[in-house]
Structure formats: structure tokens, C-alpha cells
Please model this.
Amino acid sequence: MRIRSLGVIDDAVVELSPGFTAVTGETGAGKTMVVTSLGLLLGGRADPALVRIGSPSAVVEGRVSVPPGAAVAVRAEEAGAELDDGALLISRTISAEGRSRAHLGGRSVPVGVLAELADELVAVHGQTDQQGLLKPARQRGALDRYAGDAVAVPLARYGDAYRRLRAVSAQLEELTTRARERAQEADLLRFGLTEIEAVEPRPGEDAELAAEAERLGHAEALASAAALAHGALAGNPEDPEVLDATTLVAGAQRALDAVRAHDPALAALADRMGEISILLADVATELAGYADNLDADPRRLAAVEERRAALTALTRKYGTDVAAVLAWAEEGAARLTELDGDDDRIGELTAERDTLRAELSGLAQALTDARTEAAARFADAVTAELASLAMPHARVSFAIRQTEDPEGVEVGGRTVAYGPAGADEVELLLAPHPGAPPRPIAKGASGGELSRVMLAVEVVFAGTDPVPTYLFDEVDAGVGGKAAVEIGRRLAKLARTAQVVVVTHLPQVAAFADRQLLVEKTSDGSVTRSGVTVLEGEDRVRELSRMLAGQEDSETARAHAEELLATARADA
Model:
């Protein structure tokens, strides 16, 4: 990895060996930045506070060896990345303003892609992971991970059934708790639909009635105007001396017809005069018929106004016009059908809920059985590892229990609470020595014991679900003496099948490393390229002496350092 402008690191290159690499240095020298850098390369959260003061951005670049055809290589190629001689180039840039960019194999990618690759590449463990192991949910997750498909398969089916049950229960809860509101809504809909049905409005009827009411209300004036207009056009039989329009136009047409043969233009005017005569006759006839057919019955007007009043009562309640009232009635009928069907729906949902609860009960029992079987194997494997970590008499076990809940599912003949991961509460117990009762590791393990339990768990995982690289950030905190030697020995054994990187303060651990890196600050408080060095020979003895006694030149410390290195070489 190359690290630039990250925390106390100005510009440094960290070369990790294929086996066991120990990263050491004074407190505050920047060792943890190695862990932070790797976390950024694997999609970790970008914190602008990590950018070195005065720098516009921090950059971490890494080169990861990837076997051809590995899942990581396939996923990287799907994201558009290209491998460089079997290696995957990853870079992450964080600006001081908080922006983050990621590149994979020369291609810009979302940070989430790096996170997807993380589980296949590196297992990172630090003191925060130890604290996480204290949580029962994390302990159940660790057990499930160890159990593999024996738990994963029924857990996937359980999860599907659990989500369906939650959805069905929510619908059923809504239907049953809102029964009163739905009954009131149904009564209002029935009343409205009955009221509309009693009136039986027709589309456009309100406009037709408004026009008819206008006509009936002015019938006398309309009849008088029609009669007067008819007389002006067709004449008045009672007063034959009054000239009418029809007679005048007829006279004009006769005058033109008499001379039309002499001029085509006048002939055209004569034809138009004939058309006027015909039009006047038609209008006069229609006026006569209009007056004869005009309904001036007051009873009809009263009936029209009564009908309009009934329609107005509907539009005040259900819409702006008759069309809107009819639309409301259509929607209301559909909603009433839905509400009336709620009782049937409640019955269907209740039956489905009972079926799902029975299915969950069986799946929860299968999960409990699978976890119980895996817990025994997992506990035995971790206990065996603890024996090689200077805890020969310690014994790890799992407590798998359920909580009574009358609203839960049946497991093992009892009705118990359940959740998205089943009905089991899983707790990791530790009996550190014979005669000691098993207690939850959160209460019964010291810091050093917890570190070793954590390491033992990871070593067991390495045998069942290995990853290429393991990174431990001071998981040996609180450990010393013989236990520290055993941790170093166990890490070296793990490094035979995987790459192991350990940030440590313990010389007993560092002595077992295949390569030891020293992180040093310069006088100005930064770590430069030359500040991360590979220790060999005399330099490594001096660093181990410093770690042992705080004195590089102490003869006693040097002798102890050389003894540690000899012990490590003998175990190799």
C-alpha cells in the first residue's frame, strides 16, 4: 500500500509479506493508520478528519494479488476493472471537504463495489470487534456463520415467511382495529348511494333542465316575439294592407326576373333574391310552428324547478355538477363493495396468518436444532484453540434459549418470542478454569481472555470460511507473558495458510512474524516514505529490545529479544 496525507502519515509505502507481518512502533507513531488505510481500500467510511492538516486530500493505493477466476476477480471485471498481471489495483481518495472517490483496476467505481469485495479479501479485527462480540446478536451471527448452509438454508426460508407474516399481520391489524371507522364509512356510502339512486340523475340533465326552465319562465315573451316576427315576414291576415317582407321580396324578384336576360350580373342577383324569398318563407313557417308548439304550462315549469332542486341537493353534497355526482356514485359503489368484503378478507388473512405461524414454528425449530448442533462443534473447536493460547483449562459453550411469549410461535412445545432471525437467543459462555461456572464473556472474561477468545474464534472461522488476509489491530491488548508467546505462535500457524497482518505492542507476538515493519515519526511529527521500514537482523533485535524494556541497548533486553526470535524460528 502507498499512503499519502492520511493522519500523521505524509507519504509512506507499506509492503506486506505473504505470511505473517507485524507492524510495530511507538504509541502514536501511526500504526493504526495501516488498519485505517486498508479499511478505506475496502470501502470503509470516509472521514475528512483523516486528511492530514494542510493537505487538500488523502490518497491510499493498494495492489492486491488475486487468483485467476476467483470470485473477487469476476466481480471486479463485472465492474469494469482490469487485472494487472494477476493483481488488482485499488485506490481511494478523500478530500478535505469530505468527498470520496474510488478506483478499481483503473476504472472509477462506487465505493459500495469496494465494500462488496471486502468480505472476500480481508477479515479485519480490532478492539471494536471484541466489543461487538460481546453483543448476543453478534454471537448468534458468528454461530450462524460457522454453521454454514445448515442454518443459512432454513434461515432464508424463515426470513421469507417472517416478512410475509409481518405484512399479513399488518393488514389484519388495520382491518380489525379500524372496523368502526370502516362501518361508519360504509353507512355514509350507502346513504349517499341510496339518495342518488332515488333521484336517478342522467348525464347532462342539469344543463337540459336549466335551458327548459329559462324557456318556460319567458314563454309569454317568446310567443309574442315569435308572432310579431311572423307577421313582419308573412303578413297579418287581419290587416291585409300592411306590407310584409315576403310580399316585398317577391315583388323585387319579379322585377329582376323581367330583365335578367339582358345582363348576367343582374340575373345572378335575381337568383340570390330567389334564395332570400325561400329562406324568408322557411323562417316564417318555423316561427308559426314555434309559437304553436311553445309550452307555457305553469305546471310543467313547477315540475322542472322541482327536479332542478333535487339535482342541486345532490351537487351540494357529492359534486359540482351531475357528471361529478355520477362519478362519486361509481367510486362509492366500488369502495362499498371493498368495505363489504372486509369480513371475507379478514377471514382469509386470519387463515393465512395461522398457516404462516405454523410454517414459522417448524422453521424456527429447524433453526434451533441446527444451531444447537453447530454450537457444540463450534464450542469444542474454540476450546481447543484456547488450549493452545495459554488457556488450557478454559472451556467455551453456547447457551441457546428462548423467551416465553403467548403471542409467539411454538418451539419445542413452548410458545416463545420470535424475530427476523428465529426464536433463539444465543450467548457465548466462558468458564476460564475448572470449577468456574460458565458465564457470559461480557461478564466473565478479562481483557486478555477476551482477546484470546476473539483470536480463537477467528482461527476456527479460518478453517471453515477462509479469506486470503487477516488483519488484527491490537487484539492482543491486555495479554502478556506466556499467553503473548502462545498468541504469536498461533498467529504464525494461521499465517501458513493465509496472509496475517498484526498491529501489536507485544514483542512476544512480533518475534513470530515473517516480516516486521517499524513505523517511525520524523522530527516534525510526520511519517514519511522512509518512516516505514522493514526490520532485519540487528535492527529487529533493537526494536524487540525497545518493546521489551524501552531500551534498545539493554543487554538483558537484547538477550531476551534474541531468545524470542530463536523460539519463533524453532517453531517455524
